[in-house]
What we know:
The protein is an alpha/beta fold.
Amino acid sequence: MTEKGEQVAMKAFSSVSVHAAVSFPRANVDTDVIIPAPFLKVVTREGLGDFLFDRLRYADVGKLGMDCSTRVHNPEFCLNRFETLFGEKPSILIGGENFGCGSSREHAPYALYDYGIVVIVAPSFADIFYENAAKNGILLVRLPQTQVELLHRCTEAAMVVQRQFRVEVWLDAGKLEFRDQTGNSVEFPFDIEPQKKHMLRSGLDEVGVTLQDYADGIRAYEAARRTETPWAFA
C-alpha cells in the first residue's frame, strides 16, 4: 500500500508481453459503467480497481472504503468468471465498439489499470477515453470488427474448456499474435501513435515524459531565470 495521497507509479510497457484475455463484447460501455460516479471523490489511482464495473460485478451497491472481498459477486460477469476459474485476474479485455464513451472522467482508466487491465482491444473507442488511457499505462488497440469478433470467439471457446486464451502483444512491432480455435497462429497488426508508444514504454504520462526528455533544458532555464530575476525567487 502507498501512503495516502501518493500516486501509484505506472510500469513501463514491455516490447513483447503475454496477456490472458477476457471477453466483454458489450457495445457503448460508458465511463459510468466502468467506474460509477460515487467513486469519483478520490484523486489517487490506488484502490479503484476494487470498484471497476461495480454495478456489474456485485449484487449490492458499492461505497468507497468498503471491503469488496465480502460483497456478493455476480457469477456471470466476465471478470468474476475468469477469477473463479483461474484464481487470478486477466490483463487484456476484448471489448465492443465505442468503448469508454460518456463523461471524460480519468478515474475510468485509473480503475482499469489498478485492477490489472493494461490492454483493451475494441473496434472503436471514445476519443477522450482513448487519449486518457495511454497517459495512465493502458494500451488501446483498434481492430476491424471481424478481427475483434474472432478474438471474442477464441476467448469464450477457451473459457468453455477452462483454459486461458493468451495473446502476445508486440508494442514496438504493432501487432497481436495468438492461436485461433484450430491452433493456427494468427497475427493482427495495429497502429499506435509514436508519442503514446513512448509514454507506454517509459511508464510515464505526458508531464513525466517532458520532465524526462527535457530535464537539462528545464534546469538551464530555471538557473537563467534565477540569475535574471532573483527577486522572483526570494
